[in-house]
């Protein structure tokens, strides 16, 4: 039994004629007669009394009609909903964003996407990049923005930011007059870092160890503006991306480039290689890739 057999059966029952049903469905009468005959054979019961050119339902036909109408209507509704999804008239996307990334890069993207696809809803989850990556991997999120690199075998990815970390020191700090500072000169400094669930936490510690010292971390936060505020108050130094540093209050903070080897900061959008991505999510990836590439 397939949906076409039920559609033909319901239409024949409604019109009381194979020929009228065939005409309305734009098929030949022999085709509809054969389909309904095959359905009767499969069910082991006659569905119609055939009286010349007219037909009427048997008791088995009446029983089937009550169920078949619901099935055909549900199938029609499903087809309509799928068409809406394909045409992006509706849909839902779960996206993970690290807090410092969202405010700087995504308001314009989300706004323009919503304007183009007003029926597609976006639920944003703000977490550190490590948690975002984990939630994309486990399926809690469809798409995530993370600090690269990630495991290429697990994720599709495109890069949209390639920057460096810069040094933040309070005004009046002994390094404030330097044009650039090598990382190993920070061995005696106290650091203000992002929390452990942020990718930059591990990245900075790893690079400091490579430079020959274990950084002394005195404060951790999930907010870049709080980190910069603590630097301004003289509580420590920090390393933040160029994008964030451009918005600093330079009257209280001095931003200094790191000398090579610098610490790269690359952002990418990821989604699982082995998981279905909805029509809406696929369009979001394409839309964001084009728009972010132009910024």
From TrEMBL:
UniProt keyword Transcription present: yes
N-terminal signal peptide: none
Superkingdom of the source species: Bacteria
InterPro entries recorded: HTH-type_LysR_regulators, LysR_HTH_N, LysR_subst-bd, WH-like_DNA-bd_sf, WH_DNA-bd_sf
Cellular component GO terms held in the UniProt record: cytosol
UniProt entry tagged with the keyword Ubl conjugation: no
Location of the HTH lysR-type domain: 1-58
Alphabetized GO MF terms: DNA binding; DNA-binding transcription factor activity
Entry keyword set: DNA-binding, Transcription, Transcription regulation
SUPFAM superfamilies the UniProt entry points to: Periplasmic binding protein-like II, Winged helix' DNA-binding domain
Classification via Pfam families: HTH_1, LysR_substrate
Family: Belongs to the LysR transcriptional regulatory family.
NCBIfam families listed in its UniProt record: trans_act_CidR
Name of protein: HTH-type transcriptional regulator YwbI
The species this protein was found in: Paenibacillus albidus
């Amino acid at each position: 039994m397939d949906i076409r057999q039920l559609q033909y059966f319901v239409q024949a029952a409604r019109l009381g004629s194979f020929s009228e049903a065939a005409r309305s469905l734009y098929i030949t009468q022999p085709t509809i007669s054969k389909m309904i005959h095959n359905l009767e054979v499969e069910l082991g019961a006659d569905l119609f009394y055939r009286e010349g050119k007219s037909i009427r339902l048997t008791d088995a036909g009446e029983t089937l009609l009550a169920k078949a109408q619901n099935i055909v209507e549900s199938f029609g509704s499903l087809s309509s909903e799928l068409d809406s999804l394909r045409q992006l008239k509706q849909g839902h996307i779960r996206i993970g964003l690290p807090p410092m990334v969202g405010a700087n890069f995504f308001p314009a993207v989300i706004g323009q996407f919503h304007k183009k696809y007003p029926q597609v809803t976006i639920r944003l989850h703000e977490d550190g990049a490590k948690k975002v990556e984990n939630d994309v991997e486990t399926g809690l999120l469809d798409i995530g923005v993370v600090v690269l690199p990630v495991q290429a075998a697990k994720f599709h990815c495109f890069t949209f930011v390639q920057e460096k970390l810069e040094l933040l020191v309070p005004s009046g700090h002994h390094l404030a007059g330097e044009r650039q500072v090598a990382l190993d000169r920070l061995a005696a400094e106290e650091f203000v870092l992002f929390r452990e669930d942020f990718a930059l936490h591990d990245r900075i510690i790893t690079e400091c160890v490579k430079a020959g010292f274990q950084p002394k971390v005195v404060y951790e936060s999930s907010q870049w503006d709080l980190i910069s505020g603590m630097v301004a108050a003289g509580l420590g130094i920090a390393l933040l991306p160029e994008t964030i540093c451009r918005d600093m209050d330079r009257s209280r903070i001095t931003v200094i480039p790191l000398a090579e080897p610098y610490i790269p900061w690359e952002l990418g959008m990821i989604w699982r290689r082995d998981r279905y991505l909805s029509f809406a999510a696929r369009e979001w990836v394409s839309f964001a890739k084009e728009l972010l590439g132009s910024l």
